[in-house]
Amino acid sequence: MKVVLLTVVVLLLSLGAEASQRLTPLAKFKYDRNIEYNDVWGYTAPDQREYALLGVVDGTAIIDITDASSPKEISFIPSNRSTWKDIKTLGHYAYVVNESGGGMQIIDLSKLPQVATLAATFTDFSTSHNLWIDTDRKILFAEGDHAQPVKLYSLENPLAPTKLSFLGVECHDIYARDGLVYVSEGGHGTIGIFNYDDPANPTLVKRFQIQRAGYVHNAWPTTDNRYLMTTEENSGKTMKMFDLSDLRSVQKVGEILAPGSLAHNVHIKGDYAFVSHYGSGLRIYDVSNPASMSEVAFWQEGERSQTGFVSVWGAFPFFKSGKILASSIEEGLYIFQHDSARE
Q: Residue 115: which domain range?
């Protein structure tokens, strides 16, 4: 019966996807060499020029996308070869981690559009799968090891992070805002919510179990912090929306999944969720009613969704201009424009 119900859900979602707007890329950036890509982040310079920070297996590409129809690589910062890379920014610095060693690279973006340079390499830890930066409080959260799942660092000196504490039982992905950090706890099947108002002594606020969970992969709160949208990186596991208004009794209020049935990461901006959905490409959902989410736009490579760990790895919808970045494992960077991302 469960298999039948899941099939019905996927079919209904497929029909909904056909009614949503199919996006057309404004441009694409890909190297003329045999290389794969991973995550992507964005940076807006003080002069309002916009840049894609594209993770490549052997480095990080800094690409000027101000003219979205004609992306231009400014610099390439080599790194240890790694399938996994994560990138975040604070001020005019980009922080880059990978899973193959060499520590965290700190890239200086202050001389753009002329050049970006490697300013420092932080070696307090060698590898990390994921990181997040609370840009208001200047605190960096890095995925750690079994003994210290999430490590907290002060970035008051952006080139010399200072360790503050650690937290958690397991970590795959991290999101922090307003003194709360949401930790996707992977194989534990749980979301851990911690308070870090005192970053030297973070405390557990709530840990809740996702029923029949896959690998709890990432989580992102809505703008008002009332709801949390999650992904589980297993085929057939839906993206779920949880109501956090009463932490004594966290309730699932909605779920959705694209036809390829494998969601990677969700990012929420305003009333919309932007999902890197592997073989289903980039998916944009209206989440203004968390109990009844609907797809409004999508793009995928090919006419039909692919299955497995292919195609779109990362997305970035946070430019004020409404540009959206999507990174494809095989094909590099795609640039889109959609009103859902415009401020």
A: 2-342
